[in-house]
Protein backbone atom coordinates (compact mmCIF):
# COMPACT_ATOMS: atom_id res chain seq x y z
CA UNK A 1 0.00 0.00 0.00
CA UNK A 2 1.41 3.38 -1.01
CA UNK A 3 1.80 6.26 1.41
CA UNK A 4 -1.08 8.16 -0.21
CA UNK A 5 -3.38 5.17 0.24
CA UNK A 6 -2.61 4.82 3.93
CA UNK A 7 -3.84 8.31 4.75
CA UNK A 8 -7.33 8.42 6.22
CA UNK A 9 -9.82 11.01 5.09
CA UNK A 10 -10.85 13.57 7.66
CA UNK A 11 -14.53 12.76 7.11
CA UNK A 12 -14.08 8.98 7.15
CA UNK A 13 -16.82 7.05 8.97
CA UNK A 14 -16.23 6.36 12.63
CA UNK A 15 -15.04 2.95 13.70
CA UNK A 16 -17.88 0.83 14.98
CA UNK A 17 -20.29 1.83 12.20
CA UNK A 18 -22.73 -1.07 11.85
CA UNK A 19 -23.48 -0.77 8.13
CA UNK A 20 -21.92 0.01 4.79
CA UNK A 21 -23.55 2.15 2.15
CA UNK A 22 -22.91 2.06 -1.60
CA UNK A 23 -24.71 2.46 -4.92
CA UNK A 24 -25.30 -0.21 -7.55
CA UNK A 25 -26.49 1.07 -10.92
CA UNK A 26 -27.70 4.28 -9.28
CA UNK A 27 -29.63 2.62 -6.45
CA UNK A 28 -28.45 2.97 -2.85
CA UNK A 29 -27.80 -0.16 -0.80
CA UNK A 30 -27.23 -0.29 2.94
CA UNK A 31 -25.87 -3.54 4.34
CA UNK A 32 -25.56 -4.24 8.06
CA UNK A 33 -22.10 -5.33 9.14
CA UNK A 34 -23.12 -6.55 12.58
CA UNK A 35 -24.69 -9.88 11.65
CA UNK A 36 -28.04 -8.68 10.31
CA UNK A 37 -27.77 -11.34 7.61
CA UNK A 38 -25.91 -14.46 8.78
CA UNK A 39 -24.60 -15.11 5.24
CA UNK A 40 -22.93 -11.71 4.96
CA UNK A 41 -19.62 -11.40 6.76
CA UNK A 42 -16.09 -10.17 6.17
CA UNK A 43 -15.42 -12.81 3.50
CA UNK A 44 -18.69 -12.30 1.56
CA UNK A 45 -17.86 -11.11 -1.97
CA UNK A 46 -19.42 -8.40 -4.10
CA UNK A 47 -20.20 -10.86 -6.92
CA UNK A 48 -22.32 -12.95 -4.53
CA UNK A 49 -24.19 -9.90 -3.27
CA UNK A 50 -24.92 -8.73 -6.82
CA UNK A 51 -26.18 -12.13 -7.96
CA UNK A 52 -27.77 -13.63 -4.83
CA UNK A 53 -29.07 -10.65 -2.89
CA UNK A 54 -30.15 -8.15 -5.56
CA UNK A 55 -30.61 -10.44 -8.58
CA UNK A 56 -28.11 -8.86 -11.00
CA UNK A 57 -27.02 -12.04 -12.72
CA UNK A 58 -25.33 -10.29 -15.65
CA UNK A 59 -22.23 -10.19 -13.48
CA UNK A 60 -20.91 -13.73 -13.87
CA UNK A 61 -18.40 -15.81 -11.99
CA UNK A 62 -16.28 -18.50 -13.54
CA UNK A 63 -12.80 -18.84 -12.10
CA UNK A 64 -13.32 -16.91 -8.84
CA UNK A 65 -9.63 -16.03 -9.07
CA UNK A 66 -9.82 -12.76 -11.03
CA UNK A 67 -8.37 -14.24 -14.18
CA UNK A 68 -11.31 -14.60 -16.55
CA UNK A 69 -12.93 -11.15 -16.29
CA UNK A 70 -16.53 -12.37 -16.28
CA UNK A 71 -17.19 -10.65 -12.94
CA UNK A 72 -15.97 -7.18 -13.98
CA UNK A 73 -17.74 -4.12 -12.61
CA UNK A 74 -16.88 -0.44 -12.78
CA UNK A 75 -16.30 1.41 -9.52
CA UNK A 76 -16.40 5.14 -8.97
CA UNK A 77 -14.95 6.20 -5.63
CA UNK A 78 -13.01 8.98 -3.93
CA UNK A 79 -9.26 8.80 -3.40
CA UNK A 80 -8.71 8.81 0.39
CA UNK A 81 -5.82 11.30 0.38
CA UNK A 82 -6.49 13.64 -2.55
CA UNK A 83 -10.29 13.55 -2.49
CA UNK A 84 -10.32 13.19 -6.28
CA UNK A 85 -12.79 10.92 -8.01
CA UNK A 86 -11.38 7.61 -9.23
CA UNK A 87 -12.94 5.42 -11.91
CA UNK A 88 -11.66 1.88 -12.27
CA UNK A 89 -12.73 -1.62 -13.17
CA UNK A 90 -12.61 -4.38 -10.59
CA UNK A 91 -13.08 -8.11 -10.32
CA UNK A 92 -16.15 -8.46 -8.12
CA UNK A 93 -15.18 -12.06 -7.33
CA UNK A 94 -12.15 -10.77 -5.40
CA UNK A 95 -13.74 -7.74 -3.74
CA UNK A 96 -15.12 -8.21 -0.23
CA UNK A 97 -18.54 -6.59 0.10
CA UNK A 98 -17.48 -4.74 3.26
CA UNK A 99 -14.76 -2.97 1.22
CA UNK A 100 -17.44 -1.32 -0.97
CA UNK A 101 -18.48 1.38 1.51
CA UNK A 102 -18.90 4.65 -0.38
CA UNK A 103 -18.53 3.09 -3.85
CA UNK A 104 -20.71 3.77 -6.88
CA UNK A 105 -20.76 0.42 -8.69
CA UNK A 106 -21.91 -0.11 -12.27
CA UNK A 107 -22.71 -3.58 -13.59
CA UNK A 108 -23.36 -4.80 -17.12
CA UNK A 109 -27.12 -4.40 -16.53
CA UNK A 110 -26.74 -0.63 -16.49
CA UNK A 111 -25.09 -0.60 -19.92
CA UNK A 112 -28.09 -2.03 -21.69
CA UNK A 113 -30.26 -5.05 -22.22
CA UNK A 114 -33.03 -6.43 -24.38
CA UNK A 115 -35.78 -4.61 -22.44
CA UNK A 116 -34.34 -1.08 -22.39
CA UNK A 117 -32.07 -1.26 -25.42
CA UNK A 118 -28.39 -1.94 -25.84
CA UNK A 119 -25.42 0.37 -25.39
CA UNK A 120 -23.79 1.48 -28.70
CA UNK A 121 -20.72 -0.63 -27.94
CA UNK A 122 -22.91 -3.70 -27.45
CA UNK A 123 -24.64 -2.95 -30.78
CA UNK A 124 -21.32 -2.58 -32.60
CA UNK A 125 -19.96 -5.85 -31.25
CA UNK A 126 -23.03 -7.60 -32.67
CA UNK A 127 -23.11 -5.63 -35.95
CA UNK A 128 -19.48 -6.29 -36.80
CA UNK A 129 -19.41 -9.90 -35.63
CA UNK A 130 -17.41 -9.31 -32.48
CA UNK A 131 -16.56 -12.80 -31.34
CA UNK A 132 -14.46 -13.54 -28.32
CA UNK A 133 -14.67 -15.64 -25.25
CA UNK A 134 -17.80 -14.15 -23.56
CA UNK A 135 -16.04 -13.18 -20.36
CA UNK A 136 -13.28 -11.31 -22.21
CA UNK A 137 -15.90 -9.46 -24.23
CA UNK A 138 -17.64 -8.38 -21.01
CA UNK A 139 -14.39 -7.10 -19.58
CA UNK A 140 -13.63 -5.23 -22.80
CA UNK A 141 -17.07 -3.57 -22.85
CA UNK A 142 -16.70 -2.34 -19.33
CA UNK A 143 -13.27 -0.82 -19.72
CA UNK A 144 -14.23 0.77 -23.05
CA UNK A 145 -17.50 2.38 -21.96
CA UNK A 146 -16.21 4.33 -19.01
Automatic annotation (TrEMBL):
Keyword Repeat recorded: no
Key words of the record: 2Fe-2S, Iron, Iron-sulfur, Metal-binding
InterPro entries associated with the record: 2Fe-2S_ferredoxin-like_sf (IPR036010), 2Fe-2S_ferredoxin-type (IPR001041), 2Fe2S_fd_BS (IPR006058), Ald_Oxase/xanthine_DH-like (IPR016208), Beta-grasp_dom_sf (IPR012675)
Sequence ranges assigned to domain 2Fe-2S ferredoxin-type in this UniProt record: 18-111
Protein name: 2Fe-2S ferredoxin-type domain-containing protein
Amino acid sequence: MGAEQSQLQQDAPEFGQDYISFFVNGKEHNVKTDGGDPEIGPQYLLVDYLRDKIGLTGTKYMCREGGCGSCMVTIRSTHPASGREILRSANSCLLPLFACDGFDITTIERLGNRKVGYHPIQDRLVKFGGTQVPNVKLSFKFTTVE
